[in-house]
Amino acid sequence: MTPSFATRAVHAGRHDFNDLGVHAPPLDLSSTYPTPDLAAAAASYDALASGERPRGSAVYSRLFNPTTDRTERAVAELEGAEDAAAFASGMAAVAAVLMDARQRGRHIVAVRPLYGGTDHLLSSGTFDLDVSWVAAQNIAAAIRPDTALVYIETPANPTLELVDIADVVRQAGSVPVCVDSTFATPVLQRPITHGAALVLHSATKFLGGHGDVLAGIVVGGHPHIARLKHLRAITGGVLHPLASYLLHRGLPTLELRVLRMQQTADILASRLAESSQVQRVFYPGLPGQDPQRIIGRQMAGPGSILAFTLVEDSAEAMQRFISTLQLITPAVSLGSTDTLIQPPAALTHRIVDPAAQAASHITPGLARLSVGLESADDLWHDLAQALDSVASAAPAHSGEMLVSTA
Ligand SMILES: *Cc1c(COP(=O)(O)O)cnc(C)c1O
Hints:
Layout: H1 5-11, H2 17-20, H3 38-49, H4 66-79, E1 83-87, H5 90-104, E2 107-110, H6 116-123, E3 130-133, H7 139-142, E4 147-153, H8 165-172, E5 177-180, H9 185-188, E6 198-202, E7 216-220, H10 222-235, H11 241-250, H12 254-274, E8 278-282, E9 305-310, H13 315-324, E10 329-330, E11 340-342, H14 354-359, E12 366-370, H15 376-405
Parallel strand pairs: 2-3, 2-4, 4-5, 5-6, 10-11
Antiparallel strand pairs: 1-7, 6-7, 8-9, 9-12, 11-12
Bound molecules: pyridoxal-5'-phosphate.
């Protein structure tokens, strides 16, 4: 019998604990490893430099670290992938994926919206990439002989658009598809089973889950991940072993956290949709918001991130709303135990091209809410009082706005 996800999440990466005689993962902070046998160390060095496991000495911690290796094995197992490579942050992981693609071809096909940093890295010319931005249904027509990668995010940051991974994989043909699955976590979605070549996570978010670790991880087939490990070794974006330890520590409670947060998000999304101070709510669990019926087919549920637009769609109204919140933390990031809120236009997506922001409904009055583990009633109480205060302050402030923009 194959153990359930919950069971594997508790035990993944603990395969050798009985042999080691330990109960908690050993934290190895070594920056270097003894190499008394030089020929053996040289062979190990060569193996590590090409992304393979060490043969004997691990040589140097930029090449291999046992604590990080343990965490990688655990996340690979939960995603149903052969292998994984952990990086210093989600963006270090995205950068490695793009550098690897650039070595195989110059062209990338991408679907917006994406996380602001990823959008920026693709558009900024940093890796001399030629990016075609297309709608998900137009990927096949955009593929060229030099297309090295198709890059998508689902659910997408910040407005929760869902993309049909199997359909994208079919359209991409022999071109590898990378799915940023940060919002879904392996609890709700496992893109490898739908044909994705690579799955990327900002592990800073749900996987770490407690707001105290910055990390990125990519899972996929062995040759591809070995190339990413090679890139990681030569460019240095390794995950610190203490961060690896904390990331591993987040995994046993991942399912509990994600399902509970999702339950609360579902309640808040419905209440926000009924509020007279809210123009629009973006949440795939709301009626009519998943026309392709991706939930149930690709995702086990809508997740715990939602976004909503204030009736007064302005930076001033957003500032009043944010400053009135008592319980919810105004901060970027997501997937933490506490509820976080931020306006993407002002913060996470401010570096995205203005026309692309507008096309993705990223306006000054859009707030992205990452629902935490507090009770739904306490969170609603906080949101409702802040929405009320925006409403009562609106007339005076809209007068000021007219003056200042005249
Ligand atoms: C936060 C985030 C990233 C970037 O990850 P960092 O760990 O902040 O570098 C990438 N993709 C998505 C969807 C994110 O939310």
